[in-house]
Amino acid sequence: MDNISDAIGVIAQSADTLFILLGAIMVLAMHAGFAFLEVGTVRHKNQVNALVKILTDFAFSAVAYFVIGYQIAYGSHFFVSADTLAANNGYDLVKFFFLLTFAAAIPAIVSGGIAERGSFRPFLFASALIVAFVYPLFEGIIWNGNYGFQAWLGSTFGAEFHDFAGSVVVHGMGGWLALVAVYFLGVRGGRKPGVAFAPSNIPFLALGSWILIVGWFGFNVMSAQTLDGISGLVALNSLMAMVGGTIIALIVGKNDPGFIHNGPLAGLVAVCAGSDLMHPIGAFVVGGVAGGLFVFVFTKLQRSTKIDDVLGVWPLHGLCGVWGGIAAGIFGQQSLGGLGGVSVMSQLVGTAAGVVFAVVGGFIVYGIVNKVSSLRLSQEDEYIGADLAIHKIGSTNADK
Question: What pTM, to 2 d.p., does this model score?
Answer without folding.
Answer: 0.96
